[in-house]
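Dear all,

This email documents one entry for the complex benchmark we are building for the journal club exercise. For each entry we list the sequence lines for every component of the assembly. Then comes the predicted three-dimensional structure of the complex as a token string, followed by one or two observations. Please use this as the template for your own entries, and keep the labels exactly as they appear.
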Amino acid sequence: NAGVTQTPKFRILKIGQSMTLQCAQDMNHNYMYWYRQDPGMGLKLIYYSVGAGITDKGEVPNGYNVSRSTTEDFPLRLELAAPSQTSVYFCASSNRDGNEKLLFGSGTQLSVL
Amino acid sequence: AQKITQTQPGMFVQEKEAVTLDCTYDTSDPSYGLFWYKQPSSGEMIFLIYQGSYDQQNATEGRYSLNFQKARKSANLVISASQLGDSAMYFCAMRERGAQKLVFGQGTRLTINP
């Protein structure tokens, strides 16, 4: 099915470990986003990309890195994981800005212990 | 800077009643879009409805309608004839024209009682 695919769905990390959250979309969307959602809270933007080779910081970028080498993929890298990064991570994409809705992946539940 | 406020942390409504979820926003850009998303307990984000700042009429999608009051900067979601399956978190979000990011409010947890 077409859409946004995130992997893994669940992950437990130890403090100081690193990992990459994968995100792929097959709708040829230019815009891709990474959000995090802490328990009982709204979504906060970590990083976003408006096309291959172009990325920019959102509201809460510290502790994360991204790359966008292709239109389809937008991985999120966590370096030196900290307990404060325990959250649900959502990847999303849209065709353009303005009135185009974001389509979300199913999320990754990450716990850092 | 964009800002979205949802003042109702939780709402409890009887099944079949209509419910209004409040959302106010702040922006200096005359061109923007307003969105509502539903997040059931399973966690996925489901798009419900969109309203553009220049749209003359309030948006409607089935049982969902958006009560858009531009001068008051409010974009309330109205759900008619509520159903048990409407129980979920609801998020209001805004994107300014030319801005790439969608900014979310804190959300309202809606519980529909039988």
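Observations: The CA atoms of residues 52 and 70 of chain A lie 5 Å apart. The mean pLDDT of chain A is 92.
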